[in-house]
Each structure stands twice: as structure tokens, then as C-alpha cells.
Amino acid sequence: MALLSDMTEAPAQRSAASRCTSACGLLYLAAGLSMLAWPGQAQVMLGERPFVGDEAALVRVIGMLLAVAGWFQIFGGRTGGRQFVAATVLDRLILVPLVLVPTALAGVFPKMMLVFAVLDPVLM
Q1: DSSP 95
Q2: Are 48 and 111 in contact (CB under 8 A)?
Q3: pTM of this structure
């Protein structure tokens, strides 16, 4: 099938940055899938407050978004494209902290948001 062969194709030589991008994508995919399957891990692992209302569903949405981002990073890193890797660096250094730190300061899952705000730039 052409789609599967296209997805598994990778250049013979990939830079360390491309390999790192794919590896980070695996971590994001795994973290996202675990949040999707078990939204309560935010309370168990990070000590977040109990959910009020429909917050478990929102954590599942965050997990799905994180899994999709991981999926794209896996395959973006596999392309060996320098533009993709550069775009993820800017995203990790600027966008993620710019959004997640104020969200944490507003009291929305502060521990979880700060963990992602710190880990994302560090994993570069």
C-alpha cells in the first residue's frame, strides 16, 4: 500500500536534530495516549486538585492533542527536513512557555502545565 510505504520511508542519513525530534514525538505520543486513557493521572502523579465538573474530559482532549502533536513530530523528524526541526525549536522555546506558564498562574492544572512548560524546551 502506497500510504504505508510513504509513512515508513525515511532518508538514509538523518541529522541528530531530526532523530531527537522523532524521539520527542514518541514521548509526546505516549504521554498523550496515557492522558487520553487515564485523565486522573494528573491527580495521582502530580497531586493536582480533584476534578470539578467535566475537567476529566478536558484532560482527555489535552491528551489527544498531545498525541497528535507527537505523531506529527515522529514523522516530521523522519523526513529529515531542517525546516520542520527548526519550527519545533521555535515552538518549544517561545510558544509553549508563553501559553502554559500564564495558564498555570491562572490556576488551571498548575503543576501539569508547569511540568510541560519546563520539559518541552528542555527536551530539545
Answers
A1: I
A2: yes
A3: 0.85
